[in-house]
Each structure stands twice: as structure tokens, then as C-alpha cells.
Batch of 2 targets.
Target 1
Amino acid sequence: MQFICSVTGERYPINIPRHCSNSGYLLDLEFEAKFDLEKIKQRKPNLWRYKEALPIANENAIISFQEGFTPLLEIEFDGHKALIKQEQLFSTGSYKDRGATVLMSLIKELGIENVIQDSSGNAGCSIAAYAAKAGINCRIYLPADTSEAKIAQMLMYGAEIERVPGSREDTAIAALKAADTTFYASHCYNPFFYQGTKTFAYEVVEQLGWKVPDAVVVPAGNGTLLIGCYIGFNDLLKAGIINRLPKIIAVQASNCSPLFQAFQESHGQYKEVSTQPTLAEGISIAAPVRGNQLLRMVKETNGTFYSVSEDEIKNALFYCGKMGYYIEPTSAATIAGLRKYLADQPNELVVSLFSGHGLKSTDKILKLIR
Ligand SMILES: Cc1ncc(COP(=O)(O)O)c(C=O)c1O
């Protein structure tokens, strides 16, 4: 198992901490996932049941809240059925725990004692919770307008908080500077995070009786779940457990949609576009670090991008609430995209998710109600 530079192909050992290649490019991970279906079925219902497919060799280093295997519920939207993973039910209230359990286990294994991270909120909550469990010190850089409930959560886990004025990109720049001296437990740069989010794909396929859906509808901010889906479904394909990939349908807020726009225009490279504030704070990413990878992955699965307006996000939020699902506005953006996709493709087997719990955005939701 090695890190590989995504541009030059240079290889690096995983036991020497780094978040990018010597030339400053993104790292990917070379690792072969293995599956023993009989053993998997007998294990506890959490994501570590796929341990032969996860890159943590030392079981004593695993930092876990027994996370994963979230329910897959059939829910009807506008008369069309879809299957929705209840990812708001993780210990910290979002699917980012999938990535945090694997990344923080690596960090524990390497004996690192201090980490920094930057986040629009939820990845910070996850890293802070797992750092608390591991006894690792953690400082989280956040945009100034992060929801108060997420900040309270990180403080309760004992994290130090650094609120950065300006945009989400300013926060990322502040974190990169701090990464010169402290290990950067980044959900965007560190490929171990995707080794956790990929278990979403494993669980979907297992919960469908080892069958593959036609499409998965996922959010696209930095694309941590999107990349996880791409890796996870490809692992299952390579292992011969499924015989095709599902289409990856990625959703962005119209107010901040660099990838949607690049995909429409050229199916090629993305460039920075002008953005407006959006209710969907978790996907308000004007310059996703792995933008070109995300475009390539969606294209390779014959998928596409949808963008959703602020009214559509608000509408989806209240629509879910009326059905008994309290989700955060970022999560409602994915559901708004799902409703459009189901209207376009009513006969497909479609899986999507509630990505974050409503309790994380009480302040913002109250404003919408009033
Ligand atoms: C609730 C929620 N949903 C979706 C996302 C999108 O994340 P990504 O595109 O990195 O998977 C985030 C990111 O913070 C989030 O908090």
C-alpha cells in the first residue's frame, strides 16, 4: 500500500505523514480491497465488517464508534420511489464519520498527537469526535458563518476552533498554512478519508442483496462521498461482486456550482466561477480541490450533474420535514436534485441519502420557518 502522486505517479510510503506529493500535487492511494462475503455477513452491522477492504492493518489502532450500516429506507418523492440511506444517524450527525474513522485510525497508528483540519462544519465535527476518542489534540479552521450547533459540537469534543473571516476558500488557505507545522487531517487531501466514505457503496450493495442500483444521487461540495462511491463501486466491480457501475448523479447548489457549469460546458476542466451564498453551506465550495477528478468520475459512470435553486432546497427541506425527516439544508439540496432526477428517470432503482441531521442547523432552519 502506497501513496501515488496523481500527476507524476511518484510513490510514497504511507507511514511518513504528508498531505501532498513533493511537487505539491494531490495524492491517491494504491490499495487492493478484498472481500470475504461469508465472514462479512457474520460480523457486527458496522462499516468495519468490511475490514479486508479497509487499509488499517493494526486492529488495535482502530478508532470506532461502531459506525455505519445505516438503514436504507424506501421513501416516495412526488409519487416516485427511491432508497435513502439514513446518513444523518451517525454518531456526529453526518456521513463524514465514515471517513473520520479510517483517517483517524491511520493517524493513531502513526502515533501523531496533534492535527489540524478545515471544514464547513460537519467534517470538523467528525474529526473532532474521533480525535477526542483517540486522545489526539485537534484544531479546526472554520468559515465565520458556520452553524452555531456545529461549533458547539466541536467545542464539546474538546477541539480548538479558529473562525476565519471570508470565504470557505480563505479557511482552506489558513489551514494549508498551518499544515506546514502540524499534521493536516484533511478530508479533501488525505486519500484515507475516501477509504472510509467508500463503505457507503459497499453497504448499499450488501443491503440490496449484493446488487447494484441504477444510479446514486450524491452531494458534490468537495465530493468526499462522490469519490468514496466511485472507489467503492469500482472495488466491488474488480472483486466480481457487481458487474457494472451505477451512474453517479452529483448535485450542486445553483448559487455555487463550478462543477455543474464545467460539466455542461465542456465535460472537461473546471475553472473558478462566481458564486453567491447558499443555504447549503456544506456544498458551498467554489474551488473543490479534486474538481477535475470529480468531473472525470461522474463522466466515467455515465452520470451527470444537477444544480438546484435556493427555493428548491428550501422546498425539499420542508417536504422532508412533513414526512418526518429532520435534515439540514445542505442535505435538502441533494434531495432537491434527487426529485429532479426521479422526474427524469422514474423507472430506475435510485439510491440517495440524508447527509446531515437537522439538529445541526437549528439556527438557520428557525430563520426559514419565521
Ligand atoms: C450535510 C452535508 N452534506 C453534504 C456535504 C458535501 O460534502 P462532500 O461533497 O465533500 O461529500 C457536506 C459537507 O460538508 C455536508 O456537511
Target 2
Amino acid sequence: MPPIPYAGTRSRLGWAITGSGHFFEESLEVIGLLKNVDLFVSKAAAEVIRMYKSRLPEGMRVYRDTTAASAPVGLFYEGVYHTLVIAPATSNTVAKFVFGISDNLVTNVFAQAGKCRVPIIVFACDTAPELETRAPGGIVKVWPRRIDLENVERLKGFEDTTVVESLDGLVAAIDERMRWLETSFS
Ligand SMILES: Cc1cc2nc3c(=O)[nH]c(=O)nc-3n(C[C@H](O)[C@H](O)[C@H](O)COP(=O)(O)O)c2cc1C
């Protein structure tokens, strides 16, 4: 069968959130500033959002992790997205990305974006040997393991993938991408 001709408009930003308390609220705030965003929510993210008594930004399409085959990934084949952002990304999700595992909605959108050559921005949160993070009960100290830090480094070698390690870095990477899209397609 011949390939389906490319017919997409690439007019939307895909954004996946995972179950990381670290920078969870801040990532939601950034999403709230953007237009034409579709959200992909991991099962853990759906739980964490309740634990932090937080809310998803309103007025967006939200895809939850309810099917084994991650049906919404078909949108990547249809050319709907110009960019995929994964923020915040847990060390669990980063590890799965690095080893090519696609067994849930977020790991599938990452894999399919990669296979469809959609540029990806990942905000990896376990990026320093010692971090302060906000648990539902307050600020706690955590010490990401060597494997967590190594996986972030491995992810930096992926094609079409920008890894950022701070909120400022995330905002700057999105801004740069939006400006590039504006100048290239205006
Ligand atoms: C309140 C809470 C906060 C969490 N924060 C983090 C975090 O900052 N970083 C992290 O890697 N995992 C964190 N986790 C653990 C992840 O949610 C867990 O590894 C989960 O399996 C990740 O699934 P996902 O990667 O599919 O979203 C947290 C869990 C809870 C309950």
C-alpha cells in the first residue's frame, strides 16, 4: 500500500506532563500562557495533580492514558503537531525514553514524535546530585541517583531532541522554537 500523503497542518503544540512534583505547578503555568496546545497526561501525572490540589489549564484538548495502544499517537502521523514538549519529565519517563520503551501514552508520543521528525523539548527534572523539591507536604531534599543523571545525559544525544534542565531553559527553548516557526511560516 502506498504511504498516506502528508496532509497535516502542524499547527499545534503537543505537551506531555508526567508525575513529577518537581516543577509540576510551574510547568502548568507555562502551558497556561500558550495557545493551541494539546495535553497528554500520564497516569501518574493525573494522580499528582490531585495530590497537589492543582488543576489543568482550561480550554485545551486533554488526552489521558486510557488505552493500551495509546490511540492519540495517531495525531502525530496526521501532522497535527509542530513541536512536542515533555515537562516536567520524571526520571522514570526519561529512563524509558533513553531505552526506547513505549509502553504508555507519554512514552508513545515521544517515540512517535521522534519517528515523525517532530522536534521535541524535554524538561528533565532530576538534573543535579542534590535538589530541593516540593512534596505535597512541603519542601524536601532529594539526591537523584547516578542512573538518573546518566539517563539525562544520554537523552541529550537523541536526534531532534532538546533537553532543558531549568524553568528558564524551558521557557527559552519554547520561545526560540516559536520564533523560528513564526519567521519560517509567516
Ligand atoms: C507527590 C509525588 C511527587 C513525585 N515527584 C517526582 C519527581 O519530582 N520526580 C520523579 O522522577 N518522580 C516523582 N514521583 C514519582 C513518579 O510519579 C513515579 O515514578 C511514576 O511512576 C512516574 O510515572 P510517569 O513517568 O509515567 O509519569 C512523584 C510521586 C509523587 C506521589
